[in-house]
Hints:
Layout (H helix, E strand, L loop, with lengths): L10 H8 L9 H15 L11 H8 L3 H13 L3 E4 L3 E4 L17 H10 L5 E2 L9 H19 L10 H14 L8 E4 L1 H13 L5 E6 L3 H8 L4 E6 L10 H11 L3 E4 L13 H13 L3 E5 L28 E6 L10 E4 L2 H15 L4 H10 L3 H26 L4 E2 L7 E5 L6 H10 L2 E2 L15 E5 L4 H21 L12
Parallel strand pairs: 3-13, 5-6, 5-7, 7-8, 8-9
Antiparallel strand pairs: 1-2, 4-10, 9-10, 11-12, 12-14
Helix pairs in contact: 1-3, 2-4, 3-4, 5-9, 6-13, 7-13, 8-12, 10-11, 14-16, 15-16
Amino acid sequence: MSGEVDRFQHGAALAMVLGDWSAGEGPLYRKLAAALARAVDDGALTTGERLPSERELARVLAVSRATVVAAYEELRERGVVDRRQGSGTRITGRRKPPRSDGRVRGGQGTAIVQRLIDGPGSLISLSYAADAGLPEVADAVHAVAAHDLTELLADPGYHPRGLPVLRAAIADHYTATGLPTEPEQVLVTSGAHQALVLLAEVYLRGAVSVVVEAPSWSPCLDIFRQHGVDLVPVGLDADGGDGIDVHALASALATTSPSLLYVMPSFHNPTGRLMSATRRRQVAELAARHEVAVVEDNAYEGSLLSGDVATMPAPLAAYAPASAEVLTVASLKGVWAGLRVGWVRGPVGVVERCARRKAMADLGSPLLDQAVAARLVPRLGELRRSRSAVRREQCAELQRLLRHRLPEWSWRTPDGGSSLWVRLPGDHSADVFAQLALRHGVEVVPGSAMDPNGEHDAYFRIPFLRPPEVLAELVNRLAAAWTELQRHGPYDDLPLRPVV
C-alpha cells in the first residue's frame, strides 16, 4: 500500500485535520464520526485511505477506545468507511470524489492556516502569534492621506516589484544594518509568507530536497512540501546555543544535494533562538561550498527580548562569501501583521524571476499599504525597540503564570520572537495533551507538526502576545487540561463499554 493511502496511520496527522472536532453538544463518538465524515466530504480524506487503528486514534484523541469503535461503526453504517479484519478501516469509494480541499499532502500546517480562515471563536488559539498594530501605523496612514494620496492616485497602480519608494526604503534599511543593498535587489510581497511561496516556485521545480531546521514552522514547511520535495531536517544546538547544528548541516548538505537551505536566524520559530554572527558566517560558507541557495526567514527579527536592537547581528547574507546565493525574507509583522507587507532581498536575477511570478499571482501588492509601509520602514529600529519592551513584559508574565500553575513544565527563555517552546515532563505526548486542551478551550499546535524528525513530540508552542487577563485565562485552561490528563490519563487502556 502506498504512503499516500497510509498517511494517517499515525493518529497525530489525522488529529490536525479534524481540528476542533470535540466542540459542541452530544456524545463524543457522534462528534468524532461527524468530523471524519466532513473530512471525507471536504476531500481531506480520500477513497482508499486507511484510518488509524482504534487504539491509536483513541490514544491521540484522549478518548476511550469504545468512542472510536462507535464512531467507526457509525461511519460504516453510513457507507463512509469499510471495516475488514486484517485490512483496517478505509474510506470507501462509494461517494462522489470531492474537489481538492486545498491541503498539502503530507503537511500539517494547513490546519493552522484553516484556523485563520475559521476564526478562533471561543477558543484561545495558539496556532498563530500576532498582536495589535503599533500606534505609529495610524500616524503613517494619516500622513499618507495628507501628503501622498494625490500622487498615488495619479499612478496607474501596477508595480509588481513594489512601490519604488518602499523598495528604496528597504534597501536603505539593509545598507544601514551592514548589508549593502540596491532597490533592484528588493521585491515587495504580501507578507513574508508570499515571499517564501515565490522563492519555492523559482527554486523547487524538479527539485528533490530542501534542508530545514528541526523543529520549524509547519505552514512554511508545507510551502516546500507542495512541490513534492523531501524535507531533510537538521536539529539545533542541543544546549540552546547558536542555532542550527553546523556539523549535522555539513553532513546533510554533502549527502542530499538539496536545492535550498531554509533557516530562521532572527528569531527561530518556535524556539525563539537568535543565531550568532559566527554561526551565520559558518552556515553561509557551508552553503556556498556546496552551491546551495539559502533562504533566511527573518519575519520575527524585530522581537528582541533581551539587550538592544542595535546589537543584533546583521542578516545572514551580510556574512556570506561572494559566491553564496542568499535570499533574505522579512516583513512588517512586528509592526502590524494586518499591513501584509513583506519582501525578499537577493540577487537581481532571482528577484526578477520572483517578480514575474508575483505579477502572475496578483499584479502587485496594494499601493496604499506600501505607501504606509514606506513611512514606517525608516523607523524600524525605533518601532522594534518599542515593540520589544512590551513583549518582554508579556513573556515574563506568561513565564510567571506557568511557574506558578504548571511547575512541572520546562522551557528555555527565548532570545526573541513571540512564543515559549514548552516541554511536557516524562513521556507525555503533546498530541494527546492537545486534545484535552481543546476540550478546555485552548487550541494547541503540538511539536509533531513542527518536526519531520519526530523528536519534539513532547513540545508545543505558547505565544505570549496577549493581554495579562487573557494570559491568565489561557494558563488556567491549560492547567485544567493538564490536571485532567494527570488524573485520568489518555484513556487508551480503558475497557470497551457501551457508549451512550
